[in-house]
Amino acid sequence: MRIAVTGKSGQVVTSLIDRAGMGIEIIALGRPELDLGDPGSVGPAIVAARPDVVVSAAAYTAVDRAESEEEVAFAINGAGAGAVSAAARALGVPVIHISTDYVFDGTKPEPYVESDPVAPLGAYGRSKLAGERAVIAAAPDAVILRTAWVYSPFGANFVKTMLRLAQTRDELGVVADQIGNPTSALDIADTVLAIAFQLYSAPETAPRGIFHMTGTGEGSWADLAEVVFAASAALGGPSAQVRRITTADYPTPAARPANSRLCCDRLAGAYGLRPGPWREAVKPVVARLVKEEAGSVKQKAGAVEQKAGSNEQKAGAVKQKETVA
Ligand SMILES: NC(=O)C1=CN([C@@H]2O[C@H](COP(=O)(O)OP(=O)(O)OC[C@H]3O[C@@H](n4cnc5c(N)ncnc54)[C@H](O)[C@@H]3O)[C@@H](O)[C@H]2O)C=CC1
Question: Complex ipTM, two decimals?
Fold first, then answer.
């Protein structure tokens, strides 16, 4: 099975490459040959990839910057996503599109279900909602997966930021009044691969439409930070004390939903897929990041030693020169 995925370096695309097993080829398409901001580039790049399934994972994901670049966000997340689905439809292959909890305003007291009314709070959410609509308009049989609070060993994400900050700080203020479902991009990749296989092998019966897909269990950003630091400390990695703060203490250009929780029962019922508890899923990601950091510190130390060695060599050469002179 050949899966063309948009984006070359994002968390989800890298996780797909990481998780794809035997018999699955991931063709990662991104700039310059596929630029979502230039819809004319999308079709030819997807056709050239000769996919069996298309995964639309690339997006403009800078939530705060989108407030001042709404047009760019809309071009990429709205029209760009629509162009990806149109290309898949023209080829007659299924498309799986990734969307977000930020299509909701967070005022519902319970987890959101797929049919709840959407009301994004910010430009990023509005652009992703435009994307959902463009995807369905171009390919009514698309699968849309709304996910949330994505972290992974790759790219930029909250878990990596926490570990980086803990290298130099003993205490960190982290927002405790937004609740959501932290989701490993590795779990997203496993889910996408399982759905792609069903769409490919049983297109007549594979369920379509919008599905929520997150890690199981809920927590705040502060809870996530604490779980990260506990996992890291157990491995001798960086950790810090978490000071619980409120959204009001940490103003950002874009408003975020206070309740980001998504109910994932529809996906479990339709595809039999439900990722494990997020508190467990965090651990292997932290382990990978701590190991990588230790490796890169060692490498740096090795490089310094080598440099010192080469300085000594130089000194030796100078000495030799002096002696000869
Ligand atoms: N990161 C998160 O917390 C969440 C992400 N999502 C959605 O999940 C999907 C995957 O997100 P991540 O992997 O975390 O994103 P990411 O920010 O790690 O990667 C985004 C990818 O899109 C590519 N991209 C951006 N603009 C492009 C353009 N004009 N043309 C082609 N490629 C372009 C980037 O090069 C990168 O490869 C996105 O659709 C995002 O909206 C949904 C909920 C939460």
Answer: 0.98
